Amino acid sequence: MHARPRPVRELLLVAVLFLAYKLGRLAVAGDLSTAYANAVHVWDLERALRLPSEAALQRLVIGHDGVVRAANLYYACVHFPATAAVLLWTYLRRPALYRWARTTLALLTAAAFLVQVLVPLAPPRFLALAGMADTGHTVGPTVYGGSTDAFANQYAAMPSLHVGWAAAVGIVLTAATRSRWRWLWLLHPLLTLAVVMVTANHYWLDGIVALVLLGAALALAGAATGHAHPGAGTSPARGVLLPRRRPRTLSHSLPALPRPPAPSRALPRPPRSPRPPRRSRANARALISDPRAFALDRCDRP
Fold this sequence. Notes:
Number of strands: 0
Largest sheet: none
Distance between the termini: 86 Å
Strand content: under 5%
Shape: elongated
Order of helices and strands: HHHHHHHHHHHHH
Number of domains: 1
Structural class: mainly alpha
Radius of gyration: 42 Å
Helix content: 55-70%
């Protein structure tokens, strides 16, 4: 049984990491001219790599306000609550997976912060070359504007932590469950990738870089926690290590042959041969005294 970490310490750790990341992003907002220049370079690189156009993807839904509003809500309301819910659930039900998930997210966020310091990037909704609409302002709702701007750096599009965290959540939930439908959890990062494109908040390369960083974070977290494959060898109920099952042999896979039915009754015993009649003492003495009668008596016996 894996020991569950202390809740107060874990809450403080997560809160400190979150605040450090948010304040760090504000402290390294960077030069806006550099952010726009990097955006142009990213756009040109995607066209050189023949990646699909984000603008073409947005045009598929731009006339459907219901779909656009749902995408904006998904971008604004699912990112942090889904990640927090998975951390809480794994803490309560899968302590070993919780350590692995927490370490993975911490490493991924730290690596993303380093990239954002080195490569400030304007999102495609700010890039006139992209020709994309800011769906948060045209349709709504938006996560930027008002009091939320105090804790948001809109020029830190590279990498997309929406995609990175969503992929980590999908991987953790897939490893934590044993249903044959568990692979449907991976639809969450795929849907998140489509949402960040449709809402013009990220480029394709933002998501690709986030997935590369996530792969490195998974490897480091596996080495740090001793769970390279967190779902292997654990019970789906409590995270208890189980012994490996022996492979099924041919004798185990073949059905057992039916036993022959027991006989309904026992076979009759053969009849016993009749015993010769006992001789009295007087007859025995007569036979002994008369040898001729003794010989006749022997001949008369069966």
